[in-house]
Amino acid sequence: MSTAASEARAMTDLVSMPSLPHLPSGIVDRTPMTGIEQTRQRAILDPHTAAERFRLDHEPAPADLTPFVDGYWILRWDLTEPHRQQVLTHPVVHLTFTTGGLAQITGIVSDTFSREISGTGRVLGLRFRPGGFRPFLTAPVSTLTDRVLDIEEIFGPAARAAADAIIAEPCVPTALELAAALVRGCLPTPDPAIDKAAGLVETISADPSVLRVSQLAAIAGMSVRQLQRTFAEYVGIGPKWVIRRARMQEAAARAAMAPEDWSALAAELGYADQAHFTRDFTSCIGTSPAQYASSARRRNDFRPTRHE
Q: Most CB atoms within 10 A, among 33, 113, 151, 236?
């Protein structure tokens, strides 16, 4: 994959957190959240610094698109110095329209990415529900995993002109309506299996006691093999990955906020011992839990006070 495609793919995962539009720079909303909303916020590593570097707004999807689309997101930045943001990824497909002319469909990203943003820019995106992109394809969603496609590959050659209009449109509500119109032009028949897939991903996000694929299979009333096939077909990646990623996001979020008893946290997240948890965390985040916690809290504690 090209560098440009990798960066575009990483950018889509930068947006899977609740918006911070009405908060002073550097302040993170502490309003309690549950399920997938909480998990989205935890995609952003070192959220204190991130809140100062870019603005992220969310809008609900139009009612007629909600069988497929979870919502819109709008990412804006205006930087005097480049900012590199590390993000964890989520089991969703994005359709994005980016300053500079990129219009792409991004499948699930199985790794962790760092993405640098600089200058001034905007990304407008549609975030599909887990499983919600399956009816637009002629293949399982897993065929999109770790891939970025130009918009024409799914929505046809005419989509290029529509994408250019969306990117060029300065009024965000108008751009969002243009994006909705583009999707409506290719709207498939709703698939009831989407609700099942989305509900299983929500269960993982909302219930930290779900630590094993066998547990989730029992909740779903499926065999493990049936569950794995459903995730490959509709979600795009295996249930084990979704569970592990949600727990790593939980660990990183808690490490950034307060000191932790790592042994107790490892047990809570389903690890047999602290060493295994530390290896997984380091592999996923790029640093040990203690080092990440120290770095995140140090940057927050020593951030200069802003004066209005």
A: 236
Which helix (H) or strand (E) segment is 61 a member of?
A: none
pLDDT above 50 for 13: no
pTM of the model: 0.80
Residues 6+ apart with CB under 8 A from 17: 40, 41, 42, 43, 44, 47, 56
CA nearest neighbour of 38 among 190, 250, 290: 250
Q: Give the Cβ contact number of residue 136 at 10 Å.
A: 18
Q: How far apart are CA 180 and CA 188, in angstroms?
A: 14
| Average model confidence (pLDDT) across the chain | 81
What pLDDT shows up at residue 225? Answer: 98
Partners of 127 in the beta sheet?
71, 94
Q: How many CA atoms lie within 13 A of 51 on its CB side?
A: 22
Question: Would you say residue 236 has pLDDT above 60?
Answer: yes
Q: Read off the amino acid at residue 151.
A: I
Angle at 118 between CA 126 and CA 71, to 5 degrees: 10
pLDDT in tens, 98-131: 999 999 999 998 887 566 667 888 999 999 999 9
> Which residue carries 């990483």 as its tokens?
10
Non-local CB neighbours of 99 within 8 Å, separated by 6+ positions: 120, 121, 122, 123, 167
79-97 b/e (C-beta count within 10 Å ≥ 16 → b): eeeeeebbbbbbbbbbbbb
- Cβ(54)–Cβ(117) under 8 Å? yes
Q: Which two tokens stand for residue 33?
A: 């959240």
pLDDT at residue 186 is higher than 80: yes
